[in-house]
Each structure stands twice: as structure tokens, then as C-alpha cells.
Amino acid sequence: MSHLPKSKKALVIIPTYNEREVIGKMIDALCDNIFKKINGWECHLLIVDDTSPDKTYEVVRLKQKRYNNLHLYLNETKLGIGNAYVQGFKYGINKLKADVLIEIDGDFQHPPESIIDLLKEIDRGADYVMGSRKIKGGTIPKGWGFKRIFFSQVGGFVARFIMFFPFKSFLQVTDPTTGLKASRVKGFVDQMNMDNLYSLKFGYKIEFLFQMVTLGAKVKEIPLKFQLRQIGESKIDTNTALDVFRTAINLRFRNPMVKNFS
Ligand SMILES: Nc1nc2c(ncn2[C@@H]2O[C@H](COP(=O)(O)OP(=O)(O)OP(=O)(O)O)[C@@H](O)[C@H]2O)c(=O)[nH]1
Ligand SMILES: [Mg+2]
Fold first, then answer.
1. Ligand 2 centroid, distance to 84 Cα (angstroms)
2. What is the pLDDT of residue 242?
3. Count of the separate structural domains present in the chain
């Protein structure tokens, strides 16, 4: 039987800052294993590195010799995870003409197999698929201390209350600060405003979510078993919660798109 050409394109985007020890393993897991298990999709991987002092990008360049679907975008300085995703989304739309853009962390906290489930839900008609730690089957790491649990539980709730209450997304989106997502390009990401974001740091997560929801995306959550970071250092700092809170307020009360809420 002859193979039909794959028509749909998915781009998986991983932002990295000092992830040298883990990124090679992650690239292999995706390009050598997971992508081969996905039917009907041509999968690409883009690493957006902020010229990490540990030279994460060198590992990526070496792996590029082995995988021709592996791409690298290098920012000159550390501009934040939100900026990295803006660059990644633009690369996916303009250079690769991707149909779906996937966000996933580089440190194995999101199981790489989740990508299979994200694309399954896109195939079933969702426009925005989110990995949730708050629905049945999803979990936060057992080793998290009080502060991290507090910010994840209370912070996530406050963010979605500010952004969505009392509209239907308030109940539908249980984990607004998740970093595992798949977004449909046509009609959604290609309509998004990525040039004047309120936050280029972790607040970008709720900003992308807010825009997808106001554009009328059909949202679907899948359970996410969020793992403990095994190696490397967290980039979450004390300003992160404030950044997310400030972004939520700006979105709800300053964003003209709010009038399109459903
Ligand atoms: N390019 C780029 N990547 C970043 C930046 N900040 C974080 N990242 C990457 O974004 C991903 C998520 O960041 P993490 O520090 O793991 O955040 P987290 O998973 O919420 O926190 P931990 O549980 O502590 O790991 C990782 O792959 C980071 O390397 C940044 O400023 N620039
Ligand atoms: Mg992490």
C-alpha cells in the first residue's frame, strides 16, 4: 500500500534557558519516538533558546545533524518565556505554515507522550487543548512545598476568576496557568495579537488563553500528571505570581476584546 502524503503540520515549541542537561534527551524522545507514533501529522520541533549561558543551543545544533525536522531559534538575550513563545508561534505560522502549535516544557515535567493526546483532541474538533492538573487524572507533583501548591491552586483560581467570571470559561478552564497546550492556527493563532502583550514572562500563558477564548476557540482539557523537575533549575521567581495577577487584571479590565466574551 502506498503512503498518502501527510497534509497537516504540527510544530512543537520548547522554550529553553539553561536546560543543557535535559534537552538532548527531550529532543530524542520526541523526534525518535513520539513523533513516529502520531498518524496523519507531519511533526516538527522548534527550540527557542535565549542564548543560555550553559550553551543549551549547542546540544540542539548537534541534534540537528540527526533530525531534519528539528529547528532552532536563538534570541540574543534572556527575554522571557512569553517572548520565546511569540517567536516560536511566528516561526510556526510564517516559516513552517503549521496547522497546530504545541507548547511544552523542556524539562520532562510534561510527559512527552501528552502530545499524542493533544493532537487527538484537535483531530476531534477542539481548537485549544489544555493539559490540566486540576481535572480527574491530572496531578501536581508530590514534592511541591506549601508556597508552590498555594500559588498553583489559589493563583490559578484567582486568575480565572478575574478573567472569566461569570462566563462559561470560568468553569471550563480549570488550570489557566498550565504550560501544556495545543492551539489551532487557522482562525485562531493567525488572528491573535502577539505584538503588544501585557507580559513576556509567565503571564503570557493566560494572555494566549484569554485571546483564544475571546476568539471563540472550542476548549478541551486533558489530564496532566505534572512531574517534579528532576534536573536543572526552576525559572519561576518571586515575581511570577505578581506578573500573572497583573496580566489577568489588564486583560479583564483594559482589553477591548472583553466585549466579545461569550
Ligand atoms: N527561552 C526561554 N525559556 C524559558 C525562560 N524561562 C523559562 N523558560 C523555559 O520554559 C520552560 C518552563 O520553565 P520552568 O522553569 O520549568 O517553569 P515551571 O515548569 O513552571 O517551574 P518548575 O516546576 O520549577 O520547573 C522550561 O523549558 C524553561 O527552560 C526564558 O526566559 N526564556
Ligand atoms: Mg519546569
1. 15
2. 94
3. 1
